[in-house]
Amino acid sequence: MNKFLKEVLEGLNAEPKHLHSKYFYDEAGDKLFQQIMASEEYYPTDCEMEIFENQTEQLAKTLKNGFDGFDLVELGAGDATKSSHLLRQLVADKVDFNYFPIDISTNTIKNLEYNLPKEIEGLKIQGFNGEYFEMLEKTRQFSNRRKVVLFLGSNIGNMPVSEAWEFAKTLRQSLSKTDLVLVGIDLKKHPRVVRAAYNDSKGFTKDFNLNLLRRMNKELEANFNIDNFEHYPSYDPLNGSCKSYLISLKKQKVRIGEADFIEFEENEPIFMEISQKYSVSETDEMAKQAGFKPVKHFFDSKNWFLDAVWEC
Ligand code: AVI
Question: ipTM score here?
Answer without folding.
Answer: 0.99
